[in-house]
Amino acid sequence: MTVFLLCLQIFLFRIVDVSMGVVRTIMLVKRKTYLAALIGFIEVLIWFLIVRNALNSDEQSIFVAIAYALGFATGTLVGGLLSKKFIRIKINVQVITSGRNDTMIKAIRTSGFPATVLEALGSGDDKSKRYLLYIEIENKNFNKLKELILNLDPNAFIFVNELTSAVNGFFYEKK
Question: What's the pTM?
Answer without folding.
Answer: 0.65
